[in-house]
Every structure is written in C-alpha cells, then in structure tokens.
Amino acid sequence: MDKNYSTFAIAQMLHVDPGSVANWIDQNLLKAYRTPGGHRRVAAQDLVNFLREHKMPIPSELQTTPTRVLVVDDEMAVAQLISRAIQAVHNGLEVSQAHDGFSAGAMVTSLKPNVVVLDLRMPGMDGFEVCRNIKSNPDTRHTHVIAVTAYPSPDNVKRILQCGAKACLSKPLDMESLLKEISAAMS
User: Fold this and answer.
1) How much is the pLDDT for 2?
2) Which site in 116, 125, 132, 154 is 20 to 30 Å from 72, CA atoms measured?
3) Domains of the chain, each with CATH number or no CATH
4) Each residue of 160-180: pLDDT tens digit?
5) Spatial CB neighbours of 46, under 8 Å, sequence gap ≥ 6
6) Residues 88-104: tens digit of each pLDDT
7) 184 vs 46, 71, 114, 123, 151, CA distance in Å?
C-alpha cells in the first residue's frame, strides 16, 4: 500500500470538503508531506492510521488483505521457530501453522496464504503432494511455495521444483535465506 493521495483525492474518497483535509494536515492530525511544487500528499498507510484513530470508516480502496504465511512442518518446534523468525522480521504478516499435509491442504484452501513454507517429509500427505495440490488449484496456484527439507538430495530438489515450488532450502535452516525468500515472494 505505497500509494500517495492528494487532498482532493482524499476529499472525494471520504466525501468531505478538500479544505477539511487541508485543515487536518495543517493541524498535524493527518501526516503529510509536500511535493517540490508545494502540493500536499498523504501516504495511504498514514491515511488509514488517521481514519482508524478517528474512528472513521476506511474506504474499500484503502482496505487490503493481510499477507499470509503458512508454515507446514510436522515438527512443532521447527514450525514455531520458523513462525517466530518470520514475525520478528515481518511483524505485519499473519503467520499460521499446520503440522501435517492434510491440515496444510485444508488451511491453504481456507486461508489462501501468499507464501507456504513447506516441509517435504511428513507422515500421511508429504510436501510434494501438498505442493501439487496448491499449484493445481486455480484459487491457490499463485501461492509462493518455499520447500524445506532435511534431505536435500538433487532428486528431491528437482522433484519439488517441478511440483511448482520456487525454492528448496535444506535443514538446518539458514534463517536469513528463508527470510530473503519470503521477502522476495511478497514483492
């Protein structure tokens, strides 16, 4: 949400007089900056913050769905470690966890995450099948899958990439590499 709005655009969006918007800015109620030509501009996030603070309705064009990450690993401690690392760097993300392939499939369908961090080896439905299901569903095929495995054989890496994963990282995880992959997926 890195769009900027003029006082006139904000006034139209909120159905108020442009002078009211200018007054909010002049009274330091609404954070803004000036262009080299002297025109006021307000960042979308600053406008949303202002509206929330003043308990005003947020127009649909300013509402965004949160970026969602689903961490899938049958080892609960690993899933929690990955989730905490993601939230420490990207505190605005919704991070959920699944601990088996079947739960992952159900959560992918309901949450429609932007990114799935997916362990390859799990009991029941493995990561390969979960990835194929994600990529074959029109509602989730754009989901960015980052596979993780303690068994990074060339065959496993090739197979998961053929299933549609964007990357395959080996365990123990280099958390910096994982976080870079997640950042790349969100841009």
Assistant:
1) 67
2) 154
3) 4-62 (1.10.1660.10), 68-186 (3.40.50.2300)
4) 999 999 999 999 999 999 999
5) 30, 31, 32
6) 998 778 999 999 999 99
7) 25, 17, 11, 30, 24
Give me the chain's average pLDDT, please: 93
In sequence order, what DSSP letters do the residues of the chain get, joined into one string? ---EEEHHHHHHHHTS-HHHHHHHHHTTSS--EE-TTS-EEEEHHHHHHHHHHTTPPPPGGG--PPPEEEEE-SSHHHHHHHHHHHHHH-TTSEEEEESSHHHHHHHHHHH--SEEEEES--SSS-HHHHHHHHHHSTTTTT-EEEEEES---HHHHHHHHHHT-SEEEESSP-HHHHHHHHHHHH-
Residue pLDDT, tens place only, 57-91 = 888 888 777 789 999 999 999 999 999 999 999 87
First to last CA, the chain: 12
Tell me the pLDDT band of 25, cut-offs 50, 70 and 90.
very high
Q: CA angle, 170 as apex, 164 and 174 as ends, to 5°?
A: 115
| pTM of this structure | 0.69
Length of the chain: 187
Identity of the amino acid at 43: A
- Give residue for tokens 């929690």: 80
Query: φ and ψ at 151, to 5 degrees?
Result: -125, 70
